[in-house]
Amino acid sequence: MRLRIFASAINLAxxxxxxxxxxxxxxxxxALVIVLLLLAVPIVNMVALWTTGANDWIALYFERKAMEExxxxxxxxxxxxx
Length: 82
Fold this sequence. Notes:
It contains 3 helices and no strands. Helix 1 runs antiparallel to helix 2. By secondary structure, it is mainly α. The protein has helices at residues 2-24, 29-51, 57-80. Helix content is 85%, strand content 0%. It folds into 2 domains: 1-51; 54-82.
């Protein structure tokens, strides 16, 4: 949990720095696209940090599929042995 908070703080610092740089250099239109892309990276990173966990639906889906596959294998083994 401490690492998640630390990573979020670093991402927030990066967002503030990029926003400050965007405000300070708003006349440069060529750099605007690059700055907006750079701003998207920490935002997506923070969303990924705070939405993953024990209730992650993708992880639960693959865990369920693995369990179904184990049950099928166990069923096949039980059918093969008389």
